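Consortium newsletter contribution from the modelling node. Members have asked for a concrete example of what our holo predictions look like. Here is one, prepared for the flavin-adenine dinucleotide complex that several groups have been discussing at recent meetings.
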Amino acid sequence: MLFSPSERSQEIKARVMAFMEEHIHPNIPRYRALDESGNPNDPEGLAFIQELRMRAKREGLWNLFLPHLREDEPGTGLSNLEFAPIFEEMAKVGWAPEVFNCNAPNTGNMELLNAAANEEQRQKWLRPLLEGECTSCFIATEPAVASSDATNYETSIVRDGDEYVINGHKWFISRALHPDCRFGIIIGKSDPDNPARHAQHSVVVVPFDTPGIEIGPDLKVLNHHSVGGHPEVRFRDVRVPAENLLGEEGGGFAVMQSRMGPGRIHYGMRSIGMAEVALGMMIKRSSERVAFGKRLYEHGSVANDIGRSRIEIDQARLLTLHTAKVLDEVGVKAARKEIAMLKIVAAEMLKNVTERAMRVHGAMGLSDRTSLVGLLGAAWTIGTGDGPSEVHLPTISKIEIRDHDPVAFEKFYPSPSD
Ligand SMILES: Cc1cc2nc3c(=O)[nH]c(=O)nc-3n(C[C@H](O)[C@H](O)[C@H](O)COP(=O)(O)OP(=O)(O)OC[C@H]3O[C@@H](n4cnc5c(N)ncnc54)[C@H](O)[C@@H]3O)c2cc1C
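And here is the predicted structure:
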């Protein structure tokens, strides 16, 4: 592909790839054993990941995703365009981004805190995440309401003197069961009677050692528990200091926006790395197996699947790079359409490529003997998390319709009466 990443991006990518070769790949069986142990949040089992994290930090392969790092903050912040080819490589191993402190939901939370926190909050909540001292979670989705419509969130966040009191029930809160999860960023209703539905919600930081928080049970996703989990979290009269409010009271949606753009573009970058793995597996398997006197890839439909997958991956990569450039140059708000398009394309592309790879692997493709089922789960998660594709499509069409110029269009197809 005729795209030349900056020299800095190329240099860091080479170092990330060398780090992965030396420290991540040899630990894949260890991570898999932890993942399948039935106790993926065992602190002793997780210790090797924290060791790898501190090694990556010492080597400066840290916080690569965050363009706005200050001089006194740790890491090597890159622009989105510089980060894209690097994250693609990292994402080839599902847990590797965490080693470089580039994993969700911390990335989105760091973006949010970077945009919305005042100096005191920055030191208290952002700095420990940047340093890798703890992890965090993002707390939005609720079992009782359709959470793809964020104005539905019902959890109450009510001001009482110098405190906010939180009551509500959330679920699918990724990483909340991680032993290092120190706090969550929660959105709920602070002004339910406000006639403007987008001015009813506020966002606050809630430390996890506050009385009244109940974490669990965990929810299996595609029948699988993962590190950190995706549990239910209940809040019963949970009191946090008023200074934990992020942004303005009633300004919850503006605050949320700051995590959505970068978070969603990371889905695009990740999906490409994962799809490259699936395509590689497809080619390998189809060159090793013979059916009806031919290698599998010599059968037309398998060859077509390989070709179609390359087209879709490269299309997604081009859209990712374009979206990264728009995000870097004009910001989240102006990149809304591209970000929405990318989220949909990434999920569909990864699903298509993975399903083709599964088919080529026959029965084994559906089993735990390959990582393909996990990749299919990732495709579904990308298509659902931070709002399902059905919610992002209308954003695209709304902008298309708004920008349509009937006069300019008319001259190409004058009506018969003209
Ligand atoms: C693995 C995983 C991790 C997650 N991690 C987190 C997390 O850390 N924190 C968090 O807060 N949440 C998390 N989520 C939850 C996720 O953000 C929500 O599931 C998502 O926003 C959809 O909300 P819902 O499940 O309530 O679906 P609903 O809102 O009930 O929607 C159900 C379905 O209705 C359809 N639909 C909805 N709106 C429209 C529309 N406008 N047009 C047409 N069809 C529509 C879609 O098919 C949609 O899938 C996670 C989810 C998964 C799967």
